[in-house]
């Protein structure tokens, strides 16, 4: 399909499920230049539907089939256990050429292709929550019938959410473990650092400001400096100084091994979700 670059109107997008990630995508669409009337969002909760319409000016309703009928792009943003029933509602009414984009964790592209009309273009995406502030990471994988134009369109939709990286679907469980769930690991570290500051006698406000600013600054340095994180860590570590004393404790408490084990557990859970719901 056309990606709408030369069309007067951008492709009509329907976001099914207006939770944390669904709302983020609605807001990214508006930032990327979509008009509110070209965006539909569905919600099981009427209260939430009204909230989304009031906040973003988009149309909201509780009928997935109704919005799917007019959609050029359908974004599936419900929980993995609901995806099957949502596809059963929309599949009979989809127009040929509609691109189906899914952000559900774990479910493979084949799950969608088996339930959608023959030849449907499916693009699987793993975003993350910093997308809310335009600093997200999204990984996109093409389904059997998704062409270069479809992938370009998905990139445009996600443009306002942050970085977009393309990867083969076989990598998506690992991607989910690193960038999908990864913000939680970073928040965990920030929380622990702030708590440690309080333990050492700082006020909670100051400790939190220091922890957030330090993690943010370190991430920016790692991104912009282009140097290996181990080199950047060495540069903080003066001989016989405070940092080596601290890092020795991180090693002694197995923090590196814990991060690896956490990522493996997330990858395994992503596989399980796929097996559980795709059956
Ligand atoms: N939260 C995160 O960090 C990430 C989530 N994901 C995926 O995004 C999807 C959504 O996750 P969240 O936004 O966190 O969940 P959420 O629970 O905040 O949002 C889901 C929304 O779907 C609505 N809903 C439920 N059944 C529905 C139906 N039949 N029709 C329309 N709406 C319905 C719910 O009322 C809820 O508002 C999940 O599949 C998850 O795996 C992917 C990457 C990151
Ligand atoms: O925890 C989850 O299942 C979702 C997918 C990646 C981040 N949140």
UniProtKB/TrEMBL annotation:
Pfam families: F420_oxidored, P5CR_dimer
Annotated Pyrroline-5-carboxylate reductase dimerisation domain residues: 169-273
EC code: 1.5.1.2
Catalysed transformations (reactions): L-proline + NAD(+) = (S)-1-pyrroline-5-carboxylate + NADH + 2 H(+); L-proline + NADP(+) = (S)-1-pyrroline-5-carboxylate + NADPH + 2 H(+)
Compartments, as annotated in UniProt: Cytoplasm
A GO term for molecular function: pyrroline-5-carboxylate reductase activity
Oxidoreductase in keyword set: yes
InterPro entries membership: 6-PGluconate_DH-like_C_sf (IPR008927), NAD(P)-bd_dom_sf (IPR036291), P5C_Rdtase_cat_N (IPR028939), P5CR-like_CS (IPR053790), P5CR_dimer (IPR029036), Pyrroline-COOH_reductase (IPR000304)
Record keywords: Amino-acid biosynthesis, Cytoplasm, NADP, Oxidoreductase, Proline biosynthesis
Keyword Secreted: no
UniProt pathway: Amino-acid biosynthesis; L-proline biosynthesis; L-proline from L-glutamate 5-semialdehyde: step 1/1
Domain (Pyrroline-5-carboxylate reductase catalytic N-terminal) ranges: 12-106
Listed SUPFAM superfamilies: 6-phosphogluconate dehydrogenase C-terminal domain-like, NAD(P)-binding Rossmann-fold domains
Function (record text): Catalyzes the reduction of 1-pyrroline-5-carboxylate (PCA) to L-proline.
Family recorded in the similarity comment: Belongs to the pyrroline-5-carboxylate reductase family.
Protein name as it appears in the record: Pyrroline-5-carboxylate reductase
Organism, scientific name: Cellulomonas chengniuliangii
């Amino acid at each position: 399909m056309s990606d709408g670059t030369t069309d007067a109107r951008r492709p009509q997008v329907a976001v099914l499920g207006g939770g944390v990630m669904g709302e983020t995508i609605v807001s990214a669409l508006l930032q990327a230049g979509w008009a509110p009337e070209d965006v539909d969002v569905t919600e099981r909760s009427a209260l939430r539907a009204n909230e989304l319409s009031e906040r973003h000016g988009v149309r909201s309703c509780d009928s997935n089939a109704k919005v799917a009928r007019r959609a050029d792009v359908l974004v599936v943003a419900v929980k993995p256990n609901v995806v099957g029933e949502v596809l059963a509602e929309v599949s009979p009414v989809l127009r040929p050429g509609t691109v189906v984009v899914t952000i559900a964790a774990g479910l493979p592209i084949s799950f969608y292709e088996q339930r959608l009309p023959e030849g449907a273009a499916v693009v699987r995406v793993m975003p993350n929550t910093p997308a809310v502030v335009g600093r997200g990471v999204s990984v996109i994988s093409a389904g059997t019938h998704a062409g270069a134009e479809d992938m370009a369109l998905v990139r445009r939709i996600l443009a306002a959410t942050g970085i977009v990286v393309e990867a083969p679907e076989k990598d998506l469980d690992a991607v989910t473990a690193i960038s999908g769930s990864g913000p939680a690991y970073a928040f965990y570290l920030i929380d622990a650092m702030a708590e440690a500051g309080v333990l050492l006698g700082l006020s909670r406000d100051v400790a939190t400001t220091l922890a957030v600013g330090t993690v943010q600054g370190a991430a920016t340095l790692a991104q912009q400096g282009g140097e290996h994180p181990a080199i950047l860590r060495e540069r903080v570590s003066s001989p016989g100084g405070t940092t080596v004393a601290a890092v020795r404790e991180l090693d002694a408490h197995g923090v590196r091994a814990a991060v690896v084990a956490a990522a493996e557990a997330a990858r395994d859970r992503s596989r399980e979700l796929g097996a559980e719901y795709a059956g």
